[in-house]
Design a protein that fits this description.
- This protein is α+β, with helices and mostly antiparallel strands.
- The chain has a domain of 107 residues: Gcn5-related N-acetyltransferase (GNAT) (Aminopeptidase, 3-Layer(aba) Sandwich), CATH 3.40.630.
- The protein is 29% helix and 34% strand.
- It starts with 12 loop residues before the first strand and ends with a strand.
Length: 161
């Protein structure tokens, strides 16, 4: 295997709705993606505890797939005036190769399709890399809170141009 073949061309990754058979893979992907934050958070981040089967059954889950492998996930919950990006994760070994960007672009596209003018999200305060990424993507910090045992930072992005 050549050195570059371990990493996908993002053009070969497609986003599709989650299916019930994906739940175990999503659980593993979340554990892989978020386990690096357990020590800093003092407990497992919420995405490691999510009931992925329930999220899939609600129709809120999307997966990024490369060939036969799920390499990313999204949970998008529509509200009357915004889309909540409740969870985004990319397989650790594939971070930095455009899958997160693909999923963020998909989130914005989905909000537009639903006629929603805003995307909201939150992340752990200790997840500084994520916080920098969201700011770079045009999200604005709106508030901070301590909820369910975690320090959270909330963000919003207007999609109206």
């Amino acid at each position: 295997m050549s050195a570059g073949s371990d990493f996908p061309n993002v053009d070969h990754v497609h986003v599709r709705p989650g299916e019930t058979c994906d739940a175990p893979s999503l659980r593993e992907l979340a554990r892989d993606s978020y386990s690096q934050y357990v020590d800093a958070e003092g407990s497992e981040p919420e995405p490691m505890k999510t009931d992925y089967l329930a999220a899939i059954e609600r129709g809120h889950t999307w997966v990024a797939q490369l060939r036969d492998e799920i390499v990313g996930l999204l949970i998008l919950e529509p509200y009357p005036d915004y889309l909540l990006l409740d969870n985004i994760a990319v397989a650790n070994r594939l971070r930095g190769h455009g899958i997160g960007r693909l999923l963020m672009d998909f989130s914005e596209q989905r909000a537009s399709e639903l006629g929603l003018p805003e995307i909201r999200l939150y992340t752990g305060a200790v997840m500084t890399q994520n916080r920098h990424y969201y700011a770079h993507r045009g999200f604005t910090e709106t508030r901070r809170a301590f909820e369910r045992g975690h320090h959270r930072v909330y963000y919003s992005k207007s999609l109206q141009r």
